[in-house]
Design brief:
With about 180 residues, the chain is of the alpha+beta class. About 15% of the residues lie in helices and about 25% in strands.
Amino acid sequence: MSNQFTASCACGKVRFVATAPPIVRLLCYCDDCQAAQAIVDALPGGKSGKTSQGATDSILFRRDQVRCVSGEEHLKALKLRPESSTTRMLPTCCNSLMGNYFSNWWPHVALRTFAAPAPSFAPKFQIFTKFATASCAPSDDLPQYATIPMSFGLQLIGVALQLRLRGNPPLTFQAR
C-alpha cells in the first residue's frame, strides 16, 4: 500500500499530494469551521465538505509532506478574520473547500478531498464539540472532546518540534 494520499477539489483542477501517512483524520465542530462552511456553501456551487452531522472532516499531514501538484493558481485564501493564523484553501474553479494551513506554530496542513474513492483511514475522534448545535450534532460512534484532547495536543507539539529541528521548512504552496 502506498503512503501517498491525493486530495482533489470537486472539479479536479486542484490537486494536493501528501507523501507520508496522515497525523490523524478527525471531525471538527469549532465555530470557525461552521462559519467557513456557511460562507462556502452560500457561494455558487459551493461545497464545504460538511458531513451529515455538520462537522468538518479533516485529514492532517505534516506541512513539509504536502504539496500542490496542480491548480495552485486557482487557490484563493479564505480568512474569517484578518488577524487569524488560519488560512482556508478555496479553489475558485469550483468553490470546494479543500482544507487549511496555519501561519503560527501549528505543524500541519488539513486536507479534504472531493474525489472518489474516499480515504481508506477513518476519523479517530471529534474535537470542539462544545460548539455543536442542534443542526450540528457529534456522532456517538467516535470519542468526543470539548476542545483538543491533551494526547493530540502533545502529538502536535512533538511534530512541531520535529519540524523545528529540520529548520521549520516552509509550505511549498500558498493560497492568494
